[in-house]
Design a protein that fits this description.
The complex is a heterodimer.
Chain A: H1 2-19, H2 21-49, E1 60-65, H3 87-96, E2 101-113, E3 122-129, H4 133-136, E4 141-144, H5 149-153, E5 158-161, H6 163-170, E6 179-182, E7 185-193, E8 216-219, H7 220-225, H8 244-249, E9 256-260, H9 264-283, E10 293-297, H10 298-304, H11 310-340, H12 342-350, H13 355-391, H14 394-397, H15 404-430, H16 434-440
Parallel strand pairs in A: 3-8, 5-7
Antiparallel strand pairs in A: 1-9, 1-10, 2-3, 2-6, 2-9, 4-7, 5-8, 6-7
Helix pairs in contact in A: 1-13, 2-11, 2-13, 2-15, 11-15, 12-16, 13-15
Chain B: H1 5-36, E1 47-54, H2 61-74, E2 78-84, E3 95-98, E4 109-115, H3 120-124, E5 128-131, E6 140-142, E7 153-156, H4 157-163, E8 173-174, E9 183-189, E10 210-213, E11 215-217, E12 221-228, H5 233-247, E13 251-257, H6 258-265, H7 267-301, H8 303-311, H9 316-353, H10 360-386, H11 392-395
Parallel strand pairs in B: 4-10, 6-11, 7-9
Antiparallel strand pairs in B: 1-12, 1-13, 2-12, 3-4, 5-9, 7-10, 8-9
Helix pairs in contact in B: 1-7, 1-9, 1-10, 2-5, 7-10, 9-10
Classes of the chains: A alpha+beta, B alpha+beta.
């Protein structure tokens, strides 16, 4: 009995929309514009503050150790810790192997001579990492796999390359076992990555937080052995002696360090381990300050490093304020529309329609407006994202797309918000006194 | 008006919220417009940046760089050129702390750190307001991590005043890269902006502080700044690229004019400005729609009453001004509330999102705009009300 009645209300709703044209158009536009603006910024915001590795983000941790002590030179973070490690500390953590997996990382740049002599030599961005890097960050392989831990030990001349690199150098065929020349030394390809986008690029935010930078991966030990220069950020507390050995022995910080700690207990143990390490450094006289260490998982790290620009937060706030205004607006217009039909409602009530029935009818009508507003808002969101893409810096562009979930969110948000906005007018309508209205006629 | 309480409250609330967001958004827009329009102090219109990277180990990078620079300087249409580590408008770059004493624990200032030789000032088009330029024989080569002692520094006026508020910076010694060796300030330029362009964060706090050190950076990667004769940037950029490729084809070469760098550096700020202005415009339109919609509804409800008033001798003008006065009262209530919400919202945003502080005049300006918007929006329904014929009163519905 209920279903056909709702269908009838739905038809009534459509008819009433047509009858009061101007108000309807105003209402749908208001809701549509509100939804459009808030969805546009929500999409940008979600993309930028999203979890880059949801399946594992609570198991991956960046370690920080205070190796500078109090009185650090400028640009310090709120907790007085540097965001990278020195070679001494990173190596100590690598040797301790206190986590399930761990890797120190840095970025270098080498010249690459393609196997095809026809191709011009080029400069590539190279990530120095340990074998653990790939399984730790769930790096997907198209061909082959990571190098072995023994190859880390042996400082082996092996590389993993990205699919783009493989397309460029080997025309996309399986290149495992083939060689490339980096800085005039021969490296054997052991793996080719499949498409792999970590956005934000959390494990090294110093480079381009919203872009993929690494083109070739090789063993960290090899990179150190061959004096491959860090092209990322290097910070030193004081001036240091020149030369590679001096850099390795210095307290300059330039290495990222990540550990995989599957359980909360593992993370707790690792925290203790870091603290004890710093305490030990204090005991042997390397640090003359109390231990100060930190372990942050991926999402904590992104917040700590302020990856989402504050502008995006402001924009998000403004858009939701906007949505709020649009809804107030819709409430007002709905009130006008429904109360404008107080006469009709009075007649229906006099003919025996219950309050509930009137309530239901008006609610369905509101829902129809919401649906129309949502569809209109969806179209505007599409336009808004197009505009955002042309306005925002390049690195954000790849992030701004609408998927099925967004569409569902937009439409249901519109319907829910409109129905919410319509509750008051609908309640007023249900309380129309039939006699009063009839008399007024 | 009391009869339409809920409608009036809705409109007033809507106007208050609109005003709160409008005032804050405009504060941000103003700040970003001013921020992205700041002059760097250099001759932006005629300078371009060339970045060259060898794709094979150069046998003698210093010699290659010297040859590159000599070629650039002799090129037709080039005023001057030099090699540097960073350039203004680059987005990010080298920062240093400056101390005035060897054992100083907290630095006296943060600053951008540029390298340049005796051609740097001429290339950038900077004029000294005190002191002298570097001489060719005091320029040291910077490669690897080695830090040769600097014979002296040229600093921006902003940094000079920050370090020596009395204005006697010239000749004073400062510690820049080293905490043990100081060098004197030999020259002061009126303005030289650092490479950092972010409108907030730590780097925005010392945007105008710069130190120019007498170094020529040498490595496989070089960045040249080239100043062309007025109006010739595009042409000179092309011929410069061609010439450098002739010297050495085994390199990756990218050039950009300062104008392009500026556009790129402030793309995000301009995007934000356009987005905020669009959202605010839409907000005003929506609010106006709301006023039109609800007032029209009131007019249609009061048709008979208006007819009676007209029949009793009220002029059209009186009907219009009735609705205008009514709207003015609602808008005034909304505007008052809005000023309060705007200030509260601003306080909260300053605390949580590095928002800029709002000047109260912005909220008051917004309030006046709201009153005006209300009057404009109400005009159409009010005129329609005024056109209701007095005869309607006699017809009863």
């Amino acid at each position: 009995m209920r279903t056909p009645l709702i269908a009838y209300y739905f038809r009534l709703g459509l008819r009433s929309l047509r009858r009061n044209g101007v108000l309807t158009v105003l209402m749908i536009t208001a809701i549509g514009v509100g939804i459009g603006a808030s969805m546009t910024t929500l999409t940008v915001f979600r993309a930028m503050s999203g979890d880059p590795i949801p399946q594992k983000s609570h198991q991956l941790f960046a370690a920080q150790i205070d190796n500078w002590g109090p009185n650090k030179p400028g640009e310090q973070s709120e907790d007085q810790l540097t965001d990278q490690l020195s070679y001494i500390d990173a190596m100590a953590l690598m040797k301790a192997r206190a986590a399930k997996r761990q890797s120190a990382l840095y970025l270098t740049r080498l010249f690459l001579r393609p196997p095809d002599p026809q191709q011009k030599p080029l400069k590539v961005t190279v990530r120095a990492a340990y074998a653990d890097f790939f399984p730790m960050f769930d790096a997907p392989f198209e061909y082959g796999g990571p190098w072995a831990a023994a190859e880390d030990e042996g400082r082996a001349a092996v590389v993993v390359i990205t699919r783009d690199m493989n397309d460029r150098l080997f025309h996309g065929v399986n290149s495992v076992g083939k060689t490339i020349r980096l800085d005039d030394e021969t490296y054997r390809v052991v793996g080719v990555l499949a498409d792999w986008q970590l956005i934000p690029h959390f494990y090294d935010l110093n480079v381009i937080p919203f872009g993929q930078s690494d083109e070739v991966f090789l063993p960290f030990s090899r990179a150190i052995d061959k004096h491959m220069v860090n092209i990322g950020h290097t910070s030193c507390k004081a001036e240091e002696k020149a030369g590679w050995e001096a850099r390795l022995g210095s307290d300059c910080v330039w290495l990222q360090f990540w550990a995989e700690l599957p359980t909360a207990a593992d993370a707790r143990r690792y925290r203790g381990f870091l603290y004890n390490y710093a305490a030990e450094q204090q005991r042997i006289g390397r640090f003359n300050w109390p231990p100060h260490t930190q372990l942050r998982d991926v999402m904590q790290w992104l917040v700590y490093r302020h990856v989402v620009p504050s502008e995006v937060n402001i924009l998000l706030l403004v858009s939701f304020g906007f949505l709020l205004v649009c809804l107030l607006n819709a409430t007002g217009l709905m009130l006008a529309k429904i109360m404008g039909r107080a006469g009709d409602i009075g007649v229906r009530r006099a003919l025996g329609a219950s309050r509930g029935a009137i309530f239901m009818q008006c609610l369905v009508e509101t829902g129809v407006v919401g649906l129309a507003g949502g569809l209109c808002g969806l179209a505007l969101t599409g336009l808004g994202l197009l505009a955002a893409r042309s306005l925002l810096p390049k690195e954000f562009v790849a992030l701004t797309h609408l998927d099925a979930a967004d569409i569902a969110i937009a439409v249901s948000l519109a319907v829910a918000a409109t129905v919410l906005a319509g509750l008051y007018p609908v309640w007023r309508a249900a309380h129309v006194q039939p006699a009063w209205q009839l008399k007024a006629q | 008006m009391r009869r339409n309480k809920s409608g009036a409250i809705l409109i007033a609330t809507q106007m208050a919220i609109t005003l709160a967001f409008l005032a804050n958004a405009m504060t941000l827009v103003e700040h970003r417009l001013a921020w992205s329009a700041r002059p760097t102090g250099v001759d932006e219109a005629n300078i371009f940046v060339m970045v060259t990277e060898s794709v094979e180990h150069a046998a003698d990078p210093a010699a290659r760089e010297a040859l590159d620079l000599a070629t650039l300087r002799s090129l037709h249409g080039v005023v001057d050129a030099y090699a540097t580590n960073d350039s203004p408008l680059q987005g990010g770059g080298w920062s240093e702390t400056v101390e005035l004493a060897a054992d100083q624990q907290t630095p006296s200032a943060l600053t951008a750190h540029y390298f340049g030789d005796e051609h740097a000032l001429h290339t950038l088009g900077l004029t000294l307001i005190a002191g002298r330029n570097f001489t060719a024989d005091e320029i040291a080569v910077r490669s690897d991590d080695a830090v040769p002692p600097a014979s002296g520094y040229i600093v921006s006026k902003a940094l000079a005043l920050k370090l020596f508020p009395a204005g006697d910076a010239l000749g004073k010694s400062i510690f820049v890269e080293s905490t043990t060796i100081s060098s004197p300030i030999v020259g002061i330029v009126d303005r030289l902006q650092g490479p950092f362009t972010g409108a907030n964060g730590i780097f925005s706090t010392f945007a105008e502080n710069s130190v120019l050190s007498p170094y020529r950076p040498v490595g496989e990667f070089s960045r040249y700044l080239v100043r062309a004769q007025p109006g010739q940037v595009a042409g000179v950029m092309k011929s410069a690229e061609q010439k450098l490729f002739e010297i050495d084809g085994n390199r990756v070469l990218r050039s950009k004019s300062m104008a392009e760098l500026r556009a790129q550096a402030y793309r995000g700020d301009h995007g934000l400005i356009v987005l905020l202005i669009s959202v605010c415009t839409a907000l005003l339109i929506v609010t106006a729609f709301g006023i039109i919609g609800l007032t029209s509804y009131w007019v249609s409800q009061r048709r008979q009453q208006i007819g009676i008033r007209r029949a009793l001798g009220a002029t059209r003008r009186a009907i219009v001004s009735h609705f205008q006065t009514e709207n003015l009262l609602i808008a005034a209530a909304g505007a008052l509330g809005g000023i309060g919400i705007a200030a509260a919202l601003n306080l909260w945003m300053v605390r949580s999102f590095e928002m800029v502080r709002m000047d109260n005049s912005r909220a008051i300006g917004g309030a006046l705009l709201m009153l005006f918007l209300g009057q404009v929006a109400v005009l159409w329904p009010a005129l329609r009300a005024a056109s209701i014929p007095p005869a309607l009163a006699t017809r009863g519905g």
